[in-house]
């Protein structure tokens, strides 16, 4: 469940990820998998559209939402429901179709919801000071088609991380007192709730899952390399 409130950064620049409540062991034996995963604001569109197969690209989408949030200091897609979340995504990135996302029309929820047709991406308007290289990386994180979405390994090699300003030396990191040491309470921005329930999924795609359930698939590159696995319930 990747989101900003689950990222822990030390004074020495060491980043740790917390909350592995929805994590799953990547491999055999097969285990039951939950259909409602990832906090709404950071949930990939394939999950919102009730895909029957998903894999590590959903985490890359979450990283893109976190990247954008760090840049503008506010959540990129703060949706109030699954449908509202999709509408916010489509408004900023353009409504997807078969050309940009092969298989889009076959997703369970696509034919059950009428979306406004937003023709083009409008993301640049939100990040006017971000370099073209930086915007390019953000768009790669937020690519609709999971098969075309950038991988974590590819992202680490992206040119954005080599352009100025470069990261400072860890010794120059600022320090702050722990919350327990503060003498007063500070107002905190509302944090989205973790995923729960499944009502929206049942309304949009529940009738389609009776026969084959959800599957957790290997990534594109990993499927080429050998045996994968699928999880069903």
UniProtKB/TrEMBL annotation:
<keyword id="KW-0067">ATP-binding</keyword>
<keyword id="KW-0418">Kinase</keyword>
<keyword id="KW-0547">Nucleotide-binding</keyword>
<feature type="region of interest" description="Disordered">
    <location>
        <begin position="184"/>
        <end position="206"/>
    </location>
</feature>
<dbReference type="GO" id="GO:0005524">
    <property type="term" value="F:ATP binding"/>
</dbReference>
<dbReference type="Pfam" id="PF00069">
    <property type="entry name" value="Pkinase"/>
</dbReference>
<dbReference type="GO" id="GO:0004674">
    <property type="term" value="F:protein serine/threonine kinase activity"/>
</dbReference>
<feature type="domain" description="Protein kinase">
    <location>
        <begin position="1"/>
        <end position="161"/>
    </location>
</feature>
<dbReference type="InterPro" id="IPR050108">
    <property type="entry name" value="CDK"/>
</dbReference>
<dbReference type="GO" id="GO:0007346">
    <property type="term" value="P:regulation of mitotic cell cycle"/>
</dbReference>
<dbReference type="InterPro" id="IPR000719">
    <property type="entry name" value="Prot_kinase_dom"/>
</dbReference>
<protein>
    <recommendedName>
        <fullName>Protein kinase domain-containing protein</fullName>
    </recommendedName>
</protein>
<keyword id="KW-0723">Serine/threonine-protein kinase</keyword>
<dbReference type="InterPro" id="IPR011009">
    <property type="entry name" value="Kinase-like_dom_sf"/>
</dbReference>
<dbReference type="GO" id="GO:0005634">
    <property type="term" value="C:nucleus"/>
</dbReference>
<keyword id="KW-0808">Transferase</keyword>
